[in-house]
Amino acid sequence: MARLADYFVLVGYDxxxxxxxxxxxxxxxxxxxxxxxxxxxxxxIELFCQPSGWQLFTERNxxxxxxxxxxxxxxxxxxxxxxxxxxxxxxxxxxxxxxxGDGGEEEEPSSxxxxxxxxxxxxxxxxxxxxxxxxxxxxxGLIYTIYVDGLSVSLENVIGNLLTCTIPIxxxxxxxxxxxxxxxxxxxxxISDSLPVSSCSVALLFRQLGITNVxxxxxxxxxxxxxxxxxxxxxxxxxxxxALLALMFPLKYSFTYVPILPAQLLEVxxxxxxxxxxxxxxxxxxxxxxxxxxxxxxxxGTVNVPECVHIxxxxxxxxxxTREALSMVLDPELEVADLxxxxxxISVSSLKMQDKEIRAVFLRLFAQLLQGYRWCLHIIRIHPExxxxxxxxxxxxxxxxxxxDFLTKVLEGMAFAGFVTERGAPYRSIDLFDxxxxxxxxxxxxEEGNKQKILRHIKExxxxxxxxxxxxxAVTMHKVQKPTEGCHLRLHQKxxxxxxxxxxxxxxxxxxxxxxxxxxxxxxxxxxxxPSGPPIAAIMERNxxxxxxxxxxxxxVRNCISYVFENKMLEAKKLFPAVLRxxxxxxxRHCLTQELNLHVQQNRAxxxxxxxxxxxxxxxCCLQDCTAMDEHGIAAALLPLxxxxxxxLSPGITQFAYSxxxxxxxxxxxxxxxxxxxxxxxxxIRALYLDNSEENHTDEESPEEPQExxxxxxxxxxxxxxxxxxxxxxxxxxxxxxxxxxxxxxIHYANRMSYLLLPLDTSKNRLLRxxxxxxxESVSNSFVTNSIAGxxxxxxxxxxxxxxxxxxxxxxxxxRFINRFVDxxxxxxxxxxxxxxxxxxxxxxxxQMHIETLDAVHRESKRLPPIQKPKLLRPNLLVxxxxxxxxxxxxxxxxxxxEAAGGSIGGPPLLPAEGAIFxxxxxxxxxxxxxxxxxxxxxxxxxxxxxxxxxxxKINVQAQVDQFIQEGLQLRSCTFQLLKIAFDEEVASDxxxxxxxxxxxxxxxxxVRGTFAFTVGQSPKQAMQxxxxxxxxSLSSQQVTDMFQGLAVGVxxxxxxxxSSTTLSKNLVKNAKKTIGRQYVTRKKYTPPMWEQRGSxxxxxxxxxxxxxxxxxxxxxxxxxxxxxxxxxxxxNHLVERACCRDYQRLGLGTLSSSLTxxxxxxxxxxxxxxxxxxxxxxxxxLIVPQSIQDNxxxxxxxxxxxxxxxxxxxxxxxxxxxxxxxxxxxxKGVVGLFKSQNAPTAGPSQAxxxxxxxxxxxxxxxxxxxxxxDASGRNTLSGFTSAHMSSSGLGHRAKVITLSTPKCxxxxxxxxxxxxxxxxRASGRMSSYGLNVEIGSRLAGKELLGTHHNxxxxxxxxxxxxxxxxxIGDKSQLKGVKPDPLQHWEVVPIEVFDVRQVKAxxxxxxxxxxxxxxxxxxxxxxxxxxxxxxxLSQIHKILQISVLVVELLDxxxxxxxxxxxxxxxxxQVVSLVQLLxxxxxxxxxxxxxxxxKEWLSFGHRFSHRGAQTLAGQSSGFxxxxxxxxxxxxxxxxxxxxxxxxxxxxxxxxxxxxxxNRFRTFLLDSDYxxxxxxxxxxxxxxxxxxxxxxxxxxxxxxxxxxxxxFFNYMYAPEDGEVLRPYSNISNLxxxxxxxxxxxxxxxxxxxxxxxxxxxxxxxxxxxxxGAPQTKRKxxxxxxDNRSRVxxxxxxxxxxxxxxxxxxxxxxxxxxxxxxxxxxxxxxxxARQEGSRTxxxxxxxxxxxxxxxxxxxxxxxxxxxxxxxxxxxxxxSSTSTPSSGKxxxxxxxxxxxxxxxxxxxxxxSYEGSLYKKGAFMKPWKPRWFVLDKTKHQLRYYDSRxxxxxxxxxxxxxxxxxxxxxxxxxxxxxxxxKAFFDLKTxxxxxxxxxxxxxxxxxxxDRIQSCLSDA
Length: 1908
Description:
Elements: E1 2-3, E2 7-13, E3 25-31, H1 45-49, E4 64-71, E5 77-89, E6 118-128, H2 133-149, H3 155-164, E7 166-167, E8 174-177, E9 185-188, H4 201-209, H5 211-222, E10 226-231, H6 234-248, E11 256-258, E12 275-280, E13 293-297, E14 302-304, H7 318-330, H8 333-336, H9 351-369, E15 377-381, E16 387-390, H10 392-399, H11 405-412, H12 414-423, E17 427-428, H13 432-447, H14 451-469, H15 501-517, E18 528-529, H16 536-540, H17 551-565, H18 569-582, H19 586-598, E19 605-607, H20 609-624, H21 634-642, E20 645-650, E21 653-656, H22 670-701, H23 712-722, H24 728-757, H25 766-770, H26 789-797, H27 807-828, H28 833-862, E22 883-892, E23 913-920, E24 923-930, E25 940-945, E26 949-958, E27 965-973, E28 977-983, H29 989-1003, H30 1012-1015, H31 1020-1023, H32 1064-1074, H33 1126-1137, H34 1139-1147, E29 1164-1167, E30 1183-1186, H35 1191-1198, E31 1208-1212, E32 1219-1223, H36 1231-1235, H37 1250-1264, E33 1299-1300, H38 1304-1312, H39 1336-1341, E34 1353-1354, E35 1366-1371, E36 1386-1391, H40 1396-1410, H41 1419-1430, H42 1432-1451, E37 1455-1459, H43 1466-1478, ...
């Protein structure tokens, strides 16, 4: 029972303070006058009666009523019901400015008229601890009524009765009271006092603010934000605050709670603590500057959240569900608003009911939020008082809400702490919430999403809440007198009387005495055990991460652990990465802890070093994803394990796992240790009571003992029930036991904490430690092991301000940390003070002791042998290649290429790999194995020739995740390879330096003789020093396989030319001695040797060279006369054998003759003027010059040209007889002099300059040599000139035909403007300048052509009416100011070309684009953009463009002189490409070799200089001129795949080896230098002695005999075909040579190394796995050599044929012979069949209509031949007339034109067959067509039918077998006419008309299949 009201107070206006600005109130009377003992009188009531301040008013206001709430010091709430009315006061005294009635504006102070009457407020106040607002309103109203209406009732009596009235607090009873004025009131108490009473306030709050706003306020209140309500109604403020509190149930608000804040106390709002406060809205302006307060305006319905406040909202999906539920309750119309026939009535609950429904929604919300909370309670003490802690981390972890702000903040909040204290107790009375959270959670989960069921549940709960407030229907009626209407306006109202204190006090005393005599009413509380509800795990399953729980992963974890303990380390290693990946999932981590637990016996598990290492790594991985909270209990589960697993370091010294897993934040989190401690204590306490009960009740309880073990809470509940019944001693004993349990645990934990906090090496300074990078010595054998003690110390004790590195400081920190922990847990769990003191003494000893053991462990752990590293694999070396430095252990790091690192393409990462780097005399080789154990069996090789190294720089790399940054090297090579290596820590840095020095010496030898091609076979030691002299037979062995000259077999040969000092003249004299007496040189027509002999190593001795020297005279020979000295003649004999000479004879370009007996018929002769290399050192000895030019003239002319490289003929067009000449660029004088405007008045050339004249004569002689020079008529115009493919206008037309004709009308105009018509082929700097880069054809034709070049004809004149006979292509910069002269017959074409510097720069960028050093940040753009910026393709475009121009000119009969730069770089590129495009001979293997020997080697391309092969060239760097030429050939090869005998691999092979220095072919800068070194002609006798090939050509020949790797199967040349490739950049492809690599074997260009490796590896694989054998091969793009692992079909067949022949014991036929036979038989078959299309795509040479490869790419064997039909969209590209004849080349149609009619199909064989339909269908006759080209069998309904009914793909056919008739088959047919066709999908049954017909079909189909 409780008093209804504690105090009655009368408060009035204080007249004494009237002078001040604000008035004040004073307490006039209060009853009782002395305080109750249990309830002192609250202070400051007068402030709350007039919250907006005490003021006088000019008129009477109606009385007001509101309830304010005061909170006293014990946080008890006092409800102050204030009833206020106004009384007039005496107006004589001066007064403060009054306020108007509405309290709004003040009156003007100057106003002379004073109002007559002022009214002051007076308040009647009831102070109570019970919240019965209505009762208070009625009671105070009654008192006012008595006073105002002057009823004859004593006020003292009424007040006395009011103060003595007692009512029950709870229990649902109704109590009727009367105050003795004829009134009657019923007071209703709630059934349960734990549930708040809200009447309608909650519903009103939602009406005022709306759903979202209230939810914001709700979340803000729970997460402890400051909340301020504004309203102009005090009652509403109180209601709103009460409503908010009601919503928070079952949590109780424990901060400042002031529903009505008086004006004088407004500064309370700036308090730092959270609050819920209400303020009258007139003070709104004062609240504006509050920055961190959420303001709810009840009148305006807004909630204003300041910017700096972030309110965490409910976690989804709860937020959404709550919103929906609230809208169903508050706005039921919403559901049916869209219905076509809405229900006529919608039942809306009454306001009171709605209020309860809203609360039900929130109650459900809390039940869902806190479900399972009881499973996370730890009971630490049961007696004397239960002590309970909540394990927050576990709760959040199990709920999967660790990331959720809202719940985290709620659990940390004060309200929740109160909740745990109040509701944690296991034995107490329970209420609605307890039942809901225990029993209804499952139901709520089930009903989710079903609105009807949710609503029903809400209504049920609302019913219970309503019942709690209103248990009975109202029976009795209230009867309370009210004052008459408008009584407050009465004028003569006497003031409220002063009451008699005595009377009131007497009534109170009487009542008190009566109460003391009455027996105490004890309401027995119904206590019971609080139900726990289902555990969280059962509820939360769906939140678990589906991936994490996959059983497969757990299986992997289990297997790996069992492998570790069974010591199957290799197996464990393979699974290990998968285990580490699985550790991301919670389930896998739990699984790990459970599995490890199984392997611990008696708290100890001793492991060997490797096992220990695995276990540590798993634990570390497991812990690294744990947060400091350890919400999933992983660290908790590992804690006992880290003290169990150990390894013996030496006798008596054991290292435990904890010393290696300290590097995790969780160990420094004091909350983690508390939770762990409490958990353990709870288990021990539980055990304590379980043992008891089992001792006592073993007999009777065992039968019905439930299976489940009792939880600690259940035991506690049981104990608490029994507690009152126990004796005092028993109670003391239990308390004693519990206390000592807690104490022993505290000691245990002090130990544990010191284990995990003290680092292994305690001498280290803490700062080092907190940096996070462990010191590797601390435990060399395991992962980083290091403590976090340092960072602990920092986080807690940073203010200490000094750091000393003594060993003690770590110890001090740890001691302090443990002390703080012990203090906290022991005081919370009631450990006695003596024990606590004992602990404090003990802790430093524990720590010190542990440090001592650690020191010993640390010492021993340093002595451990390092983990076994994989043994170094030795690379295979070539014959004669030797190791210079033994392998240094390194890691090969991934660079910017993604494939190998398992990047975007996926696949296991092959890099980083661990192995060694080797330096040999020839290469740098890395060989090792990937660090990823999944690919640990693979071998990774990356190598490149030392000679190709372009850049070497030091770098720092972090080789492995767990290691320090190491020093490394990045080596880049121009074979497009990059070695990014990090030296292992075992490699001393001086070893790395020695490696670099050696590398440098080998890369840049002093002299060419130091390169590998020369030193091969010698010991590498010498290779390091430059050699002065040596006579080494290896230099001059084999003549046929002579390194540079391939087929240059000479009759005379030089002696040993081993001396680098030998001079030229000595060599020549030696020759002379040998060949004295042989007088005459005869010239036979040069015939290329047959295939078999080509490059063979032994010509029969009698078969002397094709150019033989004979005694007898021949009519065709010319007798050399005395003008030639004998020594010269001998040299000539040598020169005659040179490649260029053979080629001149093939072209019929000249004979060797003396100037006297010159054969007049031949326009050109072979001049020996340079035989001594006197005129031009970089030219060959024999040159072709016009017949009419004397040798002495040549000498003079040569001075005009750079490097003395005067124009010489290098090729002649056999049809038009136009010649191609090459020379260096001009010096200042010379031809330019011919054109430059002279000072002399004559327009012609100056007569004085004799060299100019001779030069002019020379050019004229060249022109005269052309047969059609005289004929200057119409033939000579450029009408035949086509420059199709030159179109770079980017309009999408692939090939345009531009005919340049010369209409007469335009000729005059053409003559007027000769200058500038040529324009220039500008170096179109960027790829994008297509639009500007007008085609050369139109340049030639003049500007006017531009508009019309679509028509195919030009209507403007050419340069002059007749086309020039000779075009000189020169550098624009040299030809500045040149004026054309109409009399000459030559024409200068000035063009801009790029110089070598640009090529170098471009190549560097290209290398970086194709082989980037590190991954790019933006993968989408980076590669293509950097490729474009390199401008490599622009340069190739340029070269091709110029070459095609020259080809066109030559093809139309003009000669061309290419005279660019020094005549040995771009000139060589252009001249070679022109010959390749114009002459099919150069597109054969033999011809290409000849072309390279002639144009590149003989004409002196400076290979050594451009390749920076010696020390001298180091500064100039590498310029890939020859590579650029090969790339151009590759582009042409791609466009014309059928025109080349050699494959793409051949080009790559040359690209690789021309810089590798493995062969001597591409060394030195000219023939002159090669003769100097004695390389050109070497001993014949030693030919067979050595296998080391010195010439790349011999090597290629030998390989080509063995295998078809250099051969192009699509080779089917067309006679005399001139190729005109497209040169637009869009038509160019990046050469895959730049981007591909083969990590399994290194570059595949050293054929001996690559051969025969894959097989053994595969066998090893097979034995290793017990898996079923499959035929499946996995081919990795960057790892396997595809052409070898998966060869193309033809190579495979040839190989199989070879193997079969071997098996049969025959001598296998050469593959080439086989191939030629097959081809021949193909041709004959094609003829017999007479079909319109050739029978085989690849073999027929008649396949002329797709010469240009628009669609067909049979890629070279280096990639694996896949017929890739990338049919071009532009199928109708116009044909370009070939060789000037229109229609010479047929249209480039696509591979298979789509079949339109049945006539246009390829029908190899056709006829009628019966076919059995599919299952259960009849036999039907069909017309079948066998199509060999498309490789399919098609069938039609009838012969005439054009629509195909079905296709059987022959590729799917497995077999053809004789069949048997089935049901429904044609009756009349012989059963042998049936046959079945079995495909991979089904079996087709056929039946022919007769037996031979069937046989014919079977044969045809079989042959088709075998063809494929």
